[in-house]
Structure formats: structure tokens, C-alpha cells
Amino acid sequence: MLAQFLLSNISSSCVCLIFRINQGIRYIMKTKLTLLALIGLLLSSGATYAQWSANVGVTNNYLWRGLTQSINEPAVQGGIDYASDSGFYIGTWASNVSYDSDDAYSYEHDMYFGWGGESGGISYDFSYLYFNYDENAGYDFGEVTAAIGVGNFSASISLLANAEPDEGPGEDFGFAQASYTSLDYAIPLSNGAEVGLHAGFHEGDFMYSFNGATDDYWDYNISIAKDGFFAMVSMTTLGDDDDSDGVEDYASMAARDNDEVKFVVGWSTDFELP
Length: 274
Fold this sequence. Notes:
Layout: H1 13-22, H2 35-44, E1 50-59, E2 63-64, E3 67-68, E4 75-84, E5 88-97, E6 106-119, E7 122-133, E8 141-150, E9 153-163, E10 179-188, E11 194-203, H3 205-211, E12 217-226, E13 229-236, E14 262-272
Antiparallel strand pairs: 1-4, 1-14, 2-3, 4-5, 5-6, 6-7, 7-8, 8-9, 9-10, 10-11, 11-12, 12-13, 13-14
Helix pairs in contact: 1-2
């Protein structure tokens, strides 16, 4: 989600972490600043920095756009990022994933780069992210994202940019054959915590094939985070049988239960590299 993330201090990893959260990939929570607001602060401060950083986190359930990527089981995640005061950032991130109860172990390995800035009180960010999976997932793909932020509000849209050509007969996907729109609002609290409100809309042919959903859907969540810890309640508008074929949809089957309310907790930290 293009949500706020919790960070105990402003470091070069912030920009990169924002990008990943913009994609709705991870609920690694950092500071109460939104990613876009943070980019604007860094660029307007006049500070010079260009450095590497790393991050690590754990969660009881890895959600991406409201859908479990770990069959509602824990995930360990981490990455390495580089950011410069020009607004450019690049990084890589990985997590364990599972899509079926008999899927003993799979992985997701992402690579991304982007650029962000601020002008007239409006923050902006443009990025590309490549999602790399093992053969159990059946798909590798990339997305381009444009995001803006004003005050505590942020919005983004992600479009399918490319997909691997070997998904199977009749399953080659082109540009913009899936999209995700995200709306987020951050509410700072007096004790240093932050409440986040999120709504996202996912649609497109590639989304149906990759996620196993049979209809467009919304996802919603409310979260609270402080000092690297977070808790979240998430839900989607998916049903048991959205295509009315009398068979439970893949995305809603027992191992995934993406039509149910999910309760997620986690912790993360980041640190500068020499």
C-alpha cells in the first residue's frame, strides 16, 4: 500500500522502503512519515547523503493487496537499498511465500528502482518493480508505479509493465493488463504512533490469472504502528464464488481464505551499511 511506514529515524533506506510499501507488498512498518512526504523532506533539507542500508522484518501473515502470500502463515523478510540525495533509489527485497498447503517452500525476490521529489507541497514518486518468483508461482512480472502525496494523504497507481512469456497457452499479458489503485491516509498520534487508513482497487486479466481471483476487488485495512511494531486488520470484497460457477474460487479456498477478515502483526528494523 502507499501507506505510511514507521521508522525511528530518517535514513537513506526510507525512500526505497516507501516504494515497496507503495506496491502493497509488505507491511514492514517504519516511521510515521509517508514515503512521499519523506522524499520531500529529504530533498528540501539540503542534506547530502548517498548510502546503502539493509532491513529485516517478520510478520504472522504476508499480505499483498489484501491477499495472503504465505497461506496465512509467518514470513521472514529483508532487503538491501541504496538511495541518493538526487531522489534516485534502487534496491532488492526477498520473502518466503506459499500458495498451497503442499507448497513446502517458495520465495519472492524483488528488484526495483525509482525517483522521487517534492514541489509546491506535493510529493511525487515514479518507480519500476520486478517480482521474481520460483517455478511454483508460475509468473515473473514487472510493474510501473506513479504516486503523489499531499500532507497526510497519498495516492498511487501501478500498471503491469511486462510479464514473462512462458506462463502458458493463451496467458501472455501485455502492458496495463492489470492495475492497482491505492488511497492512503495517515493519522499521527501524540504518543508517536500512527494510524493508517487504506483502500485499494485491483483489476485486470493478469490479476485474475496470478491471484486466482475471478473478479475485480477492493481491499481495505486499518493499521497502527510504533517503534517498528505494527498491527493491522485487513479485508477484501472477494466472495467464495465470484464467477457463480458453483466452484469455490482459488483465491478464497481454505488455505488462503482471502474472503475473510485478516489480523496481521509484525516487526521490522533497518540499519545503515558501512
